[in-house]
Amino acid sequence: MQITLEGKNALVCGSTDGIGKATAIVLAEMGANITLLSRNEEKLQKTLKELDTSIQGQKHQYIVADFFQSEQVTEAIKEHLTQQTTPFHILINNTGGPPLGPLIEKSSIEIIKYMSLHLTTFHILAQSLIPGMNESGYGRIVNISSNAAKQPLLNMGISNTIRGAISGWAKTLANELGPNITVNNILPGPTDTKELRNIIAGKAEQSGRSIEEVYGVLHSKVPLGRLGSPREIANVVAFIASPLASFVNGTNIVVDGGKTGSL
Predict the structure, then answer these.
(1) Whole-model pTM?
(2) Which of 118, 157, 202, 245 has the highest local Cβ count within 10 Å?
(3) Angle at 155 between CA 154 and CA 156, to 5 degrees
(4) Helix pair 108-115, 157-177: axis angle to 10 deg
(5) Residue pair 245/216 in contact by the 8 Å Cβ criterion
(6) Is the separation of the CB atoms in 77 and 49 below 8 Å?
């Protein structure tokens, strides 16, 4: 089998670092035209130069918007769609995770803030792009979530709460949309990103252990004995976004090296 996304237009969010960036690179390698979306224009410009254009002379571009400001996202995508003559076929919803800590210690303001960062902006973008997907007869909405949606994780109260909400939202949307649009969630486990490295450094400092010791504990919880790479997550995203995954819909796909304790 060969995955090809030639002629497909993909909007990839949170695409200047980690899993989002890896996904943009992989989708471009498959032939897709990529539109990056992030709040840091300097990083967007740098990432744009790393995207493949050799498959079919792909055209890549970017949108500057901050997911913490849902109205800004609404206006930015609205303006972009008025200028773009072809629809988006693929939407990769992705953004940074909430802060660590027990849920009971978090204020309602924090919960609302991060629920808006994830669920509200995901919904805004989906609503904006679905008409074009219907018109083109092809749609893939892929949400980068977390394995916390399957098994809540310690000290990740807000994240656990939000991931469950995203799963319910995505399943509902999958049931409503068909027949040409699929909606699925990718649930990464521990992945070697800048965000995770910062978390590990913080845990090491708080516990008085070395960074190597903290990594060792984390590795021991993964049956494959290591962290995943952003590209390994992106490869699964690419499959789900492709025509080959046409009958995969409304589900959570765990990509965590076996770490999650449930089926």
Answers:
(1) 0.95
(2) 118
(3) 95
(4) 40
(5) no
(6) no
Residues 6+ apart with CB under 8 A from 212: none
CA-nearest of 148, 128, 127 to 191 is 148
Cα(204)–Cα(211) distance, integer angstroms: 5
- Asked whether 65 and 39 are in contact (CB, 8 A), the reply is yes
Phi, psi of 243 (to 5 degrees): -60, -25
Which residues does 127 contact at the CB level (< 8 Å), separation at least 6? Answer: none
Q: What CA–CA distance (Å, rounded) separates 82 from 27?
A: 24
Q: Which helix (H) or strand (E) element contains residue 146?
A: none
- Report residue 152 CA to chain centroid gap: 18
| pLDDT, tens only, 174-194 | 999 989 999 999 999 999 999
**Residue ranges per structural domain of the chain:** 9-190+229-255, 192-227
- Strand order, beta sheet including 139-144: 61-64, 33-38, 9-13, 90-93, 139-144, 181-188, 252-255
- For 16-50, the pLDDT digits (tens) are 999 999 999 999 999 999 999 999 999 999 999 99
> What is the chain's percent helix, strand, coil content, to nearest 5?
50, 15, 35
Alpha helices in 84-156 (DSSP H): 108-115, 121-136
Distance of CA 37 to the CA centre of its chain: 11
Can you tell me the distance from the alpha carbon of 163 to that of 145, in angstroms, rounded to the nearest whole number?
A: 6
CATH architecture entry for 9-190+229-255:
3-Layer(aba) Sandwich (3.40)
Q: Please classify residue 69 by burial: count the beta carbons closer than 10 Å to its beta carbon, then call 0-12 exposed, 13-18 middle and 19+ buried.
A: middle
Residue with tokens 């995954």: 245
